[in-house]
Amino acid sequence: MIKTIITGIVLYASTAIDLLVILMLLFSKYRSTKHKQQIYIGQFLGSYTLIAISLFFVVSTSLCAC
After folding, report:
1. Contact between 23 and 39 (Cβ < 8 Å)
2. What is the tens place of the pLDDT at every residue in 6-45?
3. Cα–Cα–Cα angle for 10, 58, 64, rounded to 5 degrees
4. How far apart are CA 32 and CA 61, in angstroms?
5. Cβ atoms of 19 and 25 closer than 8 Å
6. Which of 23, 37, 52, 57 is buried most deeply by CB count within 10 Å?
């Protein structure tokens, strides 16, 4: 189980690099406070959704592998 968690963390961190580039481009293009708020909210919702889906699949596969 620890191996799965570590693998998930490493994969998430490696894919976050391209996200940083996209966020830098968005923040440089949209400078108003309203747009920045929308970027922050979208980024957090997207990240938490991906984490929740990943955890769902980890739990469901570990339950089925009994």
Report:
1. yes
2. 998 998 888 888 888 899 999 999 999 999 999 999 999 9
3. 145
4. 44
5. no
6. 23
